[in-house]
Design goal:
With 614 residues, this protein is an alpha+beta fold. It is built from 18 helices and 22 strands. The chain has an 8-stranded mixed beta sheet. Strands 9-10-13-11-12 form a 5-stranded mixed beta sheet, sandwiched between helices. A 4-stranded antiparallel beta sheet has the order 16-17-18-22. Strand 3 and strand 4 form a beta hairpin. Helix 1 packs across helix 4, helix 13 crosses helix 16 and helix 15 crosses helix 16.
Length: 614
């Protein structure tokens, strides 16, 4: 039998390696910019066309390459960064594996122009899918210019699974932000065709201010620590500026970005009790350690790093962040002169002295019908348009309940009937509704998922009938959108407008000027933020740009986010009438068992189930 094991050709091996190193156009930019930094460049320009599909070009003013070096740079495991295994313990450069450039040229068409400083002439190199097509002398600028064209042209499966231009462009901008943050002393620019970002040389704080809008630098407090094991510097946000979504959280070590859940957890623990449970702080923390005390050779992307003294660094980091929060009065103080102190989750003894009416009910008809001057003063955070949240819930039957299809049978038991009408229902823990089943046992319903399903079906019917309207806001709501999020918002904005959510651009800002009935300005902001998160995850609806199916899927996602914004939340007490309406409307739907996101809405406990629990 002939021998069957053989060496793979270099071109095939490079394509396999590219699967780990080059995952998307943003990966190409990361590798090329890191090489430029290693080459001593202090001015790096990046040009992108069609979100990197057609062209990625990186131009630097580094030391350049000789004719031989330019050719050798694209050979597998060829590098100028290390020469022996011992060098791995003293790494101070971004690259060292010699895999990035061979991987890039294996899945694209590459054109290089480079000239060493002081050299009279440079080199022009053309490589097509790992095959060198030409190398000629060239009159070019000092430094290096690399053009990467038609990424994944010879790997159709990889190209097919690239995301939409808006998503890929968002990832490119995010990668650019990470690279720019870790190199504040380098002048950098990114030209995407539709937008140009230019960054000056400056300090770490200046780079943060230049990258992100919203006067972010004034929301930060410094963090400093210097020990024999580690030197820590950077910034954390004040607790009052914690974000509900899209927090900016960056960890850097020895001039390199890294992902480190252990150190991230140390920072988050310092904010326990200072911020709401559903919010997250921003932080930008730099670590300087002995290169011999870390291992960056774990993954080809080099963003997973092991520390020799993790426990020690955890303690130093925690102490530094807590000390900074205390020093800058970010920790709340206790007023020992007050006669009433917060107890039992923030309630106070003696509601009269606190000025809080614990019995106040904003839904009371007596309050609604009272003259304006006799009504209790409304709390500033109460939505004055609260009634619109329940439009179609109490005052009218939902559009979708007019079904001609027979009512469903649920697990062999019919929907709640006269028994529920006579006995009523019970709300438990402001989360669940217990109502009798028609035959025996009880039905346990998740009130939020049930209302979400009802509203979602109503909105789908509106979409089908094309009856979405918009109401103008008296006070427009500004949305904080980072540069990386702008392409996604621009992509979904026409769909939002079709569904009644009007977002306009005012200079560098986005402003909500109109919302569909039932959606508040704050709800509109949450809808946009969740859509941006979904797009960043690459979920359905964002992969294609213009197909009818993709647009329809995107509209369904927007409708789901609208329904989440409008649905009654867990923790709200429902009246008997509200509970009866919710149960009735739910079981009038063709399929009441699952919520739009696939979660179970209710379960049935039979008499035998209840007996087994006792």
């Amino acid at each position: 039998m002939p021998d069957r094991i053989r060496l793979l050709p270099d071109s095939v091996a490079n394509q396999i390696a590219a699967g780990e190193v080059i995952q998307r156009p943003a990966s190409v930019i990361k590798e090329l910019v890191e090489n430029a930094v290693d080459a001593g460049a202090d001015d790096i320009r990046i040009f992108v066309k069609d979100a990197g599909r057609t062209l990625i070009q990186v131009i630097d003013n580094g030391i350049g390459m000789s004719e031989t070096d330019a050719r050798m740079a694209f050979e597998r495991h060829a590098t100028s960064k290390i020469s022996s295994a011992e060098d791995l313990s003293q790494l101070r450069t971004m690259g060292f594996r010699g895999e990035a450039l061979p991987s890039i040229c294996a899945i694209s068409m590459v054109e290089v122009k480079t000239r060493q400083k002081g050299a009279p002439i440079g080199t022009h190199l053309v490589i097509n899918g790992s095959k060198v097509e030409s190398q000629t002398p060239d009159v070019c600028e000092e430094g290096t210019s690399i053009m990467v064209k038609n990424i994944f042209f010879n790997v159709p499966a990889r190209r097919k699974f690239m995301k939409s231009d808006s998503v890929e462009l968002s990832n490119i901008i995010k990668e650019f932000e990470k690279l720019a943050l870790v190199n504040p002393g380098v002048k950098m620019s990114l030209d995407t065709g539709a937008k140009t970002i230019e960054l000056r040389k400056g300090t770490f704080l200046q780079r943060i201010a230049d990258l992100w809008k919203g006067n972010l630098q004034n929301q930060l407090i410094p963090v400093e620590a210097d020990t024999p094991t580690v030197k820590i510097s950077g910034f954390v946000s004040r607790p009052e500026f914690a974000r509900r979504r899209n927090p900016l959280q960056f960890l850097l070590v020895n001039g390199r970005n890294m992902r480190h859940p252990y150190f991230r957890k140390a920072i988050l623990n310092c904010f326990n009790g200072l911020i709401a449970p559903d919010t997250m702080p921003n932080f930008f923390i730099k670590f300087e350690v002995d290169p011999a005390a870390i291992d960056v050779n774990i993954h080809p992307t080099k963003d997973e790093i092991k520390f020799e003294e993790e426990a020690v660094i955890w303690s130093v980091l925690s102490a530094a962040v807590k000390g900074s929060l205390g020093k800058h009065a970010a920790v709340p103080s206790i007023d020992f002169e007050s006669e009433t102190l917060p107890v039992d989750g923030g309630q106070r003894n003696g509601s009269e002295s606190s000025g809080i009416d614990l019995e106040f009910n904003p839904f009371s008809s007596a309050v609604k019908n009272a003259p304006t001057h006799q009504r209790p003063a409304e709390k500033p955070d109460r939505d004055p348009n609260w009634e619109k949240l329940y439009d179609g819930f109490l005052n009218r039957r939902p559009i979708e309940t007019q079904h001609t299809a027979p009512q469903p049978v649920i697990s062999g038991m019919e929907r709640p009937g006269e028994a529920a009408q006579e006995v009523g229902s019970l709300q438990i823990n402001q989360k669940y509704i217990f109502t009798p089943a028609e035959k025996d046992g009880v039905i346990v319903i998740d009130q939020y998922r049930a209302h979400l399903k009802i509203i979602y079906e109503q909105l789908l019917q509106r979409l089908k009938n094309q009856i979405f309207a918009s109401q103008s806001l008296l006070f427009p709501e500004y949305i904080e959108v980072d540069s990386a999020q702008e392409p996604i918002l621009d992509r979904v904005n026409p769909v939002l407008r079709d569904l009644g959510l009007i977002i306009e651009r005012e200079g560098a800002n986005y402003v909500v000027t109109g919302t569909p009935p039932g959606v508040t300005a704050q709800g509109a902001t949450e809808i946009v933020e969740r859509l941006i998160d979904s797009a960043a995850d690459g979920t359905a609806g964002f992969e294609e740009e213009t197909t009818e199916n993709a647009v329809h899927e995107l509209k369904r996602k927007v409708i789901l986010e609208m329904a989440r914004s409008m649905a009654v939340k867990r923790g709200r007490t429902l009246t008997e009438e509200e509970r009866r309406e919710l149960v009735s409307d739910l079981f009038a739907l063709p399929d009441p068992s699952l919520s739009p996101d696939g979660c179970k809405i209710f379960t049935i406990l039979s008499d035998s189930d209840l007996s087994a629990l006792l």
